[in-house]
Amino acid sequence: MHEWIADNLRATAGTYQTCICAVPFLARKQGHVTVTCDPKNLEHILRTRFDNYPKGPTWQAVFHDLLGEGIFNSDGSTWLFQRKTAALEFTTKTLRQAMSRWVNTAIKLRFCPILEQSVVTGEAVDLQDLLLRLTFDNICGLAFGKDPHTLAPGLPENAFASAFDRATEASLQRFILPEVMWKLKKWLGLGMEVGLTRSLINIDHYMSSVIHARKEELNNNNPPHDSHDDLLSRFMKKKESYSDKFLSHVALNFILAGRDTSSVALTWFFWLLIQNPRVEDNIVREICAVLLSTRGDDPSAWLDEPLQSGELEPLVYLKAALSESLRLYPSVPQDSKHVISDDVLPDGTFVPAGSSITYSIYSAGRMRSTWGDDCMEFKPERWLSSDGKRFVMQDSYRFVSFNAGPRICLGKDLAYLQMKSVAASVLMRHRLTLVPGHKVEQKMSLTLFMKYGLKVDVHKRDLTAIIPSVKQQTHYSAMDEECVV
């Protein structure tokens, strides 16, 4: 579907309109959809006329049972209050440290041992599933300070994770049906609405127990307040008094926003590296160059611990490769907005009140008019300065993978931190190859999952052959800098 939309947008200079309802009156409102990926239009929708393009009633109705009026599912003053509160927390150093701690623990004690076991046994792994479990454990730890252990040995089923998955899938099914249909099914207790109701009961029970336990800990100062650096505890420590329901929705919104997106981004990233060994080699050499300066020239010492924050920061080529992967395969391939008042987009397209606008993030990264004739190539160099030493972020209305405007992703820097840490840990230890005959295909969902997962064989990486050339390259680079000085 996303390729079909991209083809349509290429043929219509970046914007077209369609109708999904043939009833004359409804055709101009609920059935009328404007589809665009034009950067000027995106800036108009996401920033200039932000107030005219909210999430809207359809989106909110679909997700209300699961997410309530949380930040991911709200508009207006409700959204703004949560946004400002969360923004203050996301800028704190302690939250970044908390993310590093959760990620590094999961990598060292769970993720890497599973991959190493795969090398020993020769059995393939579904990398998409492993990454989904990894990011779920991380975001739960960051959101409410509790580790669900879905990446534990044996990959056990977790009641909360399973209930959350079923609730998300059932909520997405509502998009397919007219609102009156799924509400009728909910009232009659039919189809996936039954599963959604049961899942929501399980989620509510789990979150209630977490919130109750956390309140007791904070009231009794046991363990000390300082040990609670998760978002839930941070909201609880505010002077305002929040209801348990609100706190639950705060945590669930951040789990939905931070779990699937990072895991899907990493899945497509590793698949692209398998197709592009030149890029993989460049990333491995960059990591080796950093570790030579921080951990010495014994490669066995490099693998004792995951990379630390100070070692991840200089990995500009890795960040460029991750950004290039997100350009071609954005975790959220499209989003939609509701139109409050009649408006005219910068390209001259009239959009009527009551209609909707879909902006294709997938298409935005694949337009020649925006990215040039090589737009379909996986080329990390387009994100680097001319000397290749600095990462250069593209305009947020050309690169919309983290959204843009007032609703730009709060966790963008944390997402890069997590993705760089996972990618570096894998690439320093292993080389991945696609299982012969495995089919890589997009799944139709809110997030750009691979329909059949990503089945890979895991091989041990030998760094000894790389180190001499990296040392030589580092030596010449240092000499060049001295000459410049």
Kindly report the name of the CATH homologous superfamily. Answer: Cytochrome P450
- Proportion of β residues? 5-15%
User: What average pLDDT do the residues reach?
Assistant: 89
Oligomer: single chain
The tally of domains stands at 1
Biggest β-sheet: strands ordered side by side in the sheet: 1-2-7-4
> The CATH topology, please?
Cytochrome p450
The CATH class label is Mainly Alpha
Span between termini: 54 Å
CATH architecture: Orthogonal Bundle
- Count of β-strands: 9
Q: Which runs of at least 5 residues are low in confidence (pLDDT < 50)?
A: none
The biggest sheet amounts to: 4 strands, mixed
Give a structural overview:
With 485 residues, this protein is of the alpha+beta class. Helix content is 56%, strand content 8%. It has a single domain, classed as Cytochrome P450 (Cytochrome p450, Orthogonal Bundle). The protein has helices at 2-11, 24-27, 39-48, 56-67, 76-90, 93-121, 127-144, 159-173, 179-188, 192-220, 231-236, 244-258, 260-275, 277-295, 299-302, 309-312, 316-328, 361-364, 368-371, 412-429, 467-484; strands at 15-19, 32-36, 125-126, 334-338, 343-344, 350-351, 356-360, 430-434, 455-460. Belongs to the cytochrome P450 family.
